[in-house]
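Rotation project, supervised by the postdoc (A.L.). Task for the rotation student: set up a whole-complex structure prediction and record inputs and outputs verbatim in this book. Inputs entered:
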Amino acid sequence: MYDLMTICKTTYTRVLRMRSLYVLLASVLVLVGAAHLYDELSGGREKELMYDTGAALLSLVGLLTALMVAFDIARDLREKVVMTLLSKPLGRSQYLLGKFSGVVWIGTINLIILTLGMLLILYWEQGFARWDFLKLAFSAWGTMVLTTAVGVLFASFFAELPAVILTVAVYAIGHGTEVLYQNNSIFSQLLFSVMANYGLLDFKDALGSNLYISWKLIVWSVVYALVYSSALLSLANIIFHRRDLA
Amino acid sequence: MSPSTPKFAVVVLILALVVSMMLSMRIAQRRVVCVAHGPQNIVRAGFNKFLSHIAWMRLIQYRGSLHGITEQEARVLKGKYDSLTDLDPMFDRAYEEGALEIGWQSPNDSLDLLDKAQRVDKLKSWRIPLLAGFIAKNRLNDSSRAIAYLKKADQQPNRPGYVKRFLISLQAQHDFDNDPIKVLHLWVDYYSGGAGQLLTGHGRMPMRDMESGFDSDPERSLALNHIRRVSTKIIEQSQKGILEERNPERKKMLRDRIDQTEKIIRQVYAGRHICPQCFRPYNAGEEFCVHDGKKLAAYGTCAKCKSVPRGPFCQKCGAKND
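Outputs recorded:
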């Protein structure tokens, strides 16, 4: 457990030292806060624009943070850093889980900063607290965890670029799997149930259109993301254990 | 299984996969009833709503660059509105503005756009079917289609009263020649707040409104005007028909129609004395209608001096009245 925490902390500290990250987050908040200047350009829809842009940026920040894991593990493997690390009393499982936890940790911090900033901006601009944004933030956190697990899986047996491309591809395809669910054939339904269903975690359209989404559904979808992530991490673990790192 | 394969990971993989399969089906089942589904569900990696804002702003710029809308430009606009509403099927303003913009040049495309909006399960707007009805009637002169749209508008929550009036007006225009009594009943039902309400006494004119003959509720007052207008038209046409008609059965049918109309109007005024020509109530002692000058059967007058007594004895001649 101590080894796992060390890897996690190292990953977290390395990302935290990147000052560009804070500049990026601040720019994002300024960009969303300035959306009220778009009143003429958006034909009077600046409030909706502000909310939906904030929601989209939450997803984007979650995705970009999750992609770091694919870069990080693949780079460790390419530069043989992993050989040095694994020569110490550190298991391969701890290494993968440590990397995963570190990125999830930094992703959580990013999302918290962004969510608090967005809540303040929305309160400032719209005059009332948009607590439903917390539902979006929680589902974005689930999405980020799932994407990190996908990134770990691909990074465990691919180089940086293919790993990142495949992670983005799974992210994009995973948002459209509801079509398979709506198809009544058993094969489609089976395919739907084994795929990474990002669509189940996406409530941006519904909440942006003022439809009611219960906390219960949000929590269940995040539970799904955590369970599916553990399946992906187990698979990554199995592949990583069988891989010849020399 | 290779000795290097961690058994714990295999167990977790199988368990987590089974649980996630069950969870995904369960969540999808619950999610389907919560989120909106349009006829075209386009997926842009979860950024649909954000991209729809960009498409909307680009569309506003494009609209600003047009000096007038030709039939060709109307088709281009239709395509742009289609793409926009594919991204955000709940964007009601886009359907409405799009339909209004192209409604004159390309009414069929305009109705296509509004039909698309009506296929979005979570979009509950009375304005969209009302607009479709308006375009179907005024641009395509298709009353049946317009009536179908207006019936949908009339089922939506928070609709204003004029949706129903527009619907009944269209039905009246459409059905009057075939069944004028049915048209009269439509207005009476609207006036009395539902089918059959008048006979139970719920929809009758309040006593305080009897004198003026106008209902204090503006909606009901408008309906009352329509009832009078339709009744007058039925009686005029029937009387003319009786004079011209030679078939005795047809004459009898027309007489029955007059009787039915008079019966309905008497029910609306709950037994008040009404002018046989304009169907407005009149007061005691009045011998001619103040609205159309028609000779009336005066009532409530003193048997001796014909003035209207204010008590059991006439204030003018002292005669006792019952």
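Student's summary: Residues 2-242 of chain A form one domain.
Supervisor addendum: The CA atoms of residues 35 and 41 of chain A lie 10 Å apart.
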